[in-house]
């Protein structure tokens, strides 16, 4: 009876597994220590070094490597320019009463509201890239990029915001579908605080 402690087998601290060095004690009393769930095959891109906001920042990728630079109004007033890690411009937003967006090789120049039209219920924004349809859906603290269609939605990416940065989590599937550059531009559109319709 003493050698068959179910709590000891589960890794909870007790006399039977004293040397296991597991997680710190639970803040919930007798319950095991909470570890937030992680998403497998996810890369995080962090919009940081705001100057003063997400429309002027650096985007760091895995291992804190700079992946993108986002510059607004310099040297061209009324524009946000997106540069890749080699300093090459790949996208822009022209801020007017109805902002225009272009992403080279993916999205021809068009109104941002046409790229991301609101659904009839105004609960999500749709997006079509090539033949594929997607949806940007706000839920809790995230704005999630999901597959659209009759089947179950699959989350491909999600945006979250803190006081000091904006995070874009991308699945490896989303990156292989060529959605990284597009998601970076959409993140700025949705986090800019400006009307895009």
Provide a descriptive summary of the structure in words.
This protein has four helices and twelve strands; from the N terminus they run H-E-E-E-E-E-E-E-H-E-E-E-E-E-H-H. The chain is mainly β and 197 residues long. It has one domain (42-191): Porin. It has a twelve-stranded antiparallel β-sheet with strand order 7-6-5-4-3-2-1-12-11-10-9-8. A hairpin with a 5-residue loop joins strand 5 (89-94) and strand 6. It starts with 5 loop residues before the first helix and ends in a 6-residue tail after the last helix. This is DUF6593 domain-containing protein. Residues 53-190 form the DUF6593 domain.
Key features?
197 residues, mainly beta, Porin, twelve-stranded antiparallel sheet, 4 helices, 12 strands
Short overview:
With 197 residues, this protein is mostly beta strands. Helix content is 13%, strand content 36%. Residues 53-190 form the DUF6593 domain.
